[in-house]
């Protein structure tokens, strides 16, 4: 049985076991251990050194020893090469995110300084090895022989988010996967538990950039239009996945259909521009592969696609050549992207704005950032299996796989939806000659399509209707994870289906489809339904549909005790959270003379549906000093404190409570605060002067009134403001 294994330099860490995973084989562990790698070499030679042929042989005759022996040979040979690389470079770390099923791939994520060169070396050494054992009869890449590909670091700001929560939440290092930190480079998410390697401390700028980078180095420093820029580029990168697997003709059909669905909406021009950008990036990808394969074709992208496809599907040597070229280009563009990011960081992220020519400087900075990101996404397009957008990684890797609970917007779910649709189409194309197999293999992506599609619908007004609503509901039933659907059980395979042959599994999958969808399975029919749903989801998530809100309420006290103001704060939070279009966070302070765990439990009980960030009151300050603790926390802590959203656009609205928490809320919403450029609201209760007269504390009333005046000046952007007098009515002031 093979589970994931971690290699750091030449030290091999213990394997971690996942008892919930099944090998899908009838042989016991002792029998599996007796299978030799020598037997694996015999079987590999019989199958012409092709992993696809090994799998085909197993599917046809069911001989478990054959594929298990080749699997053992694969693991030992790949691991030996990694160990040799680690011996030469102690900074390297390797992670194999493996499945217990030997028919699965065996991909490696490389970390540490020199990772790209290590990947190049591995690819070359593997070809040399296969030439030797085949007596020069073939020079196949590892992806052809063993279904093994190497990857390097992925989406940096996204991975920093995952890294922070990973280290913070893990009970033990064994509960966290290094692959989760580099998951942009490899889509291996249905895997066993992993070990977390110890990454060496940074000692130069390159290492700082790739192991210590934060979002502030990039998105956080781009200026007031950062939210639009970030959303736009992630949208474009997700669309490149769609364009890549739609094919040129189907892409035109998609664009036309989306244009019709968005007819009359002012957002269409911007959407059309993003579609064009995605198509241009794919055009660069096609030209590079075409040229490096020594092929010629017309300028039409459809002609370029056909030339590459003909080479890839025409023979094993042709497929191997395309893989070799993509591996080389993946390394080349990874280096280009890193160079561009380093240059951006040195020239813009680490330098203050100039005294003159600010507009041009900001334009150049944005251009440099987009250029670096484009190079990075191009590198991922050359990789064999990779997500193109950070949105998809957050949705699938961070949240669905690692349970990180990162807050996502509707547009981020749409990005993930588009990437899952692209991968779904890729599987249908790959298994087009075997429709039942296509249904089984693509079910993973169909399940993710449904998850993201439902998330978009939950955050959109009006809701989906008609055929799109019906299809999404039925597909959700077909690929449900809780309870797990029969189709996903077949794909695993569940012990119930493990001993069935491919034909029997296909029949069961077709039965599951018919039961859920209420019609007989037809691959083209299923594909058409998903493509139609894709158009509707893209249209409804772009126009004038309502986006969900993520609200942060800041107050020194909120709950059943403490008087009218805390009760009001509590009811405000709970009331806001009842709307499914809102994610509500509460930043408040531990009450005096309480145990922290008990205080947190009490606040959570009083605020159902609200995410709580409770500032500790270690000094046991009295109630009238809690606002000081709140301001101190905001000044001294980083964005993402207490599991608040880590992105600069993680909050859409901030609400402060008058003189009590208004100053802290104002700091959070400041240009250099945690969440700049957001909607900022400040609640005003009874004016401070009036409250002080009632309580007989007139001097304190003047101090509190001064605080409220300063808050309202900020809200209304005025130099002078007279506090309102009159009845003690609730006043809510908002600054956009």
What does this structure look like?
The strands form two sheets. A six-stranded mixed sheet has the order 8-7-6-9-10-11, sandwiched between helices. The chain has a five-stranded mixed sheet with strand order 2-1-3-4-5, covered by helices on one side. The protein has helices at residues 29-34, 37-46, 51-61, 64-88, 115-133, 142-145, 156-169, 178-181, 205-211, 226-246, 248-261, 268-292, 301-314, 316-349, 358-382, 390-401, 410-430, 435-458, 466-478, 486-491, 502-517, 523-540, 564-577, 596-606, 626-636, 658-669, 688-695, 698-716; strands spanning 5-8, 11-12, 93-96, 108-111, 150-151, 549-554, 582-589, 611-615, 653-657, 679-684, 731-735. Helix content is 57%, strand content 7%. The chain is globular and about 95 Å long. The protein is of the alpha/beta class.
Taken together, the total number of domains comes to 4
The geometry reads as: globular
State the total count of DSSP E strands.
Answer: 11
**Which secondary-structure class do the elements indicate?**
alpha/beta
Mean pLDDT: 79
Beta-strand portion reads: 5-15%
Helix content: 55-70%
Which topology of the largest domain does CATH recognise?
Rossmann fold
Q: How many distinct helices?
A: 28
């Amino acid at each position: 049985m093979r589970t994931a294994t971690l290699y750091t330099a030449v030290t091999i860490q213990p394997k971690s076991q996942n008892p919930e995973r099944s090998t899908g084989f009838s042989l016991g562990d002792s029998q599996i251990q007796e299978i030799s790698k020598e037997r694996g070499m015999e079987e590999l030679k019989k199958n012409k050194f092709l992993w696809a042929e090994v799998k085909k042989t197993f599917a046809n005759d069911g001989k478990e020893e054959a594929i298990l022996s080749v699997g053992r040979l694969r693991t030992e040979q790949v691991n030996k090469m990694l160990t040799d690389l680690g011996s030469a470079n102690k900074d390297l770390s390797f992670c194999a995110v493996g499945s217990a099923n030997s028919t699965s791939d065996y991909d490696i994520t490389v970390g540490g300084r020199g990772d790209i060169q290590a990947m190049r070396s591995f690819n070359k050494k593997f070809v040399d090895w296969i030439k030797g054992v085949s007596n020069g009869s073939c020079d196949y890449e590892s992806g052809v022989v063993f279904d093994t590909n190497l990857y390097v670091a992925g989406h940096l700001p996204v991975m920093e988010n995952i890294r922070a929560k990973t280290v913070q939440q893990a009970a033990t290092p064994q509960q966290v996967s290094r692959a989760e930190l580099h998951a942009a480079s490899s889509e291996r998410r249905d895997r066993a538990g992993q070990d977390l390697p110890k990454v060496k401390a940074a000692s130069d700028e390159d290492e700082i950039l790739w192991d210590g980078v934060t979002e502030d180095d990039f998105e956080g420093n781009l200026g007031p239009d950062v939210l639009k820029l970030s959303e736009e580029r992630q949208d474009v990168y997700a669309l490149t996945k769609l364009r890549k697997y739609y094919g040129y003709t189907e892409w035109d059909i998609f664009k036309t259909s989306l244009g019709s669905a968005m007819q009359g909406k002012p957002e269409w021009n911007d959407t059309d521009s993003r579609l064009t950008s995605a198509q241009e990036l794919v055009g660069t990808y096609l030209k590079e592969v075409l040229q490096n394969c020594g092929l010629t074709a017309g300028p039409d992208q459809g002609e370029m696609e056909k030339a590459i496809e003909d080479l890839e599907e025409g023979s094993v040597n042709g497929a191997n050549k395309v893989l070799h070229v993509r591996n080389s280009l993946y390394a080349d563009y990874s280096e280009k992207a890193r160079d561009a990011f380093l240059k951006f960081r040195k020239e813009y992220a680490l330098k203050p704005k100039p005294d003159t020519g600010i507009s041009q400087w900001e334009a150049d900075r944005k251009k440099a950032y987009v250029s670096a990101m484009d190079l990075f996404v191009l590198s991922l397009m050359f990789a064999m299996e990779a997500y193109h957008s950070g949105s998809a990684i957050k949705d699938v890797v961070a949240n669905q796989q690692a349970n990180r609970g990162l807050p996502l917007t509707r547009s981020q779910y749409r990005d993930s939806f588009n990437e899952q649709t692209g991968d779904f189409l890729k599987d249908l194309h790959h298994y087009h000659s075997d429709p039942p197999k296509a249904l089984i293999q693509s079910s993973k992506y169909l399940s993710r399509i449904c998850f993201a599609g439902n998330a978009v619908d939950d955050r959109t007004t009006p809701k989906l209707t008609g055929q799109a609503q019906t299809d999404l509901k039925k597909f959700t039933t077909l690929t449900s994870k809780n309870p797990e659907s029969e189709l996903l059980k077949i794909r695993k395979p569940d012990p119930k289906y493990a001993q069935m042959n491919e034909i029997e599994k296909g029949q069961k999958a077709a039965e599951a489809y018919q039961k859920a969808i209420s019609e007989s399975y037809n691959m083209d029919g299923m594909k058409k339904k998903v493509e139609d749903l894709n158009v509707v989801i893209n249209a409804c998530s772009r126009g004038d549909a309502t986006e969900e809100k993520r609200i942060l309420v800041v107050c020194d006290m909120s709950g059943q005790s403490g008087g009218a103001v805390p009760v009001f704060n509590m009811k405000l939070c709970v009331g806001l959270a009842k709307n499914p279009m809102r994610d509500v966070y509460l930043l408040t302070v531990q009450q005096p003379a309480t145990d922290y765990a008990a205080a947190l439990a009490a606040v959570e009980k009083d605020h159902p549906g609200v995410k709580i960030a409770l500032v500790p009151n270690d000094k046991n300050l009295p109630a009238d000093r809690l606002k000081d603790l709140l301001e101190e926390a905001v000044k001294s802590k980083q964005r993402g404190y207490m599991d608040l959203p880590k992105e600069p656009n993680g909050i859409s609205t901030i609400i402060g409570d008058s003189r009590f928490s208004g100053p802290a809320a104002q700091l959070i919403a400041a240009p250099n605060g945690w969440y700049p450029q957001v909607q900022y609201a400040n609640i005003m209760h009874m004016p401070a002067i009036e409250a002080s007269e009632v309580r007989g504390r007139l001097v304190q009333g003047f101090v509190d009134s001064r605080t409220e005046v300063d808050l309202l000046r900020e809200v209304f952007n005025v130099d002078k403001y007279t506090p309102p007098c009159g009845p003690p009515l609730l006043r809510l002031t908002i600054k956009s």
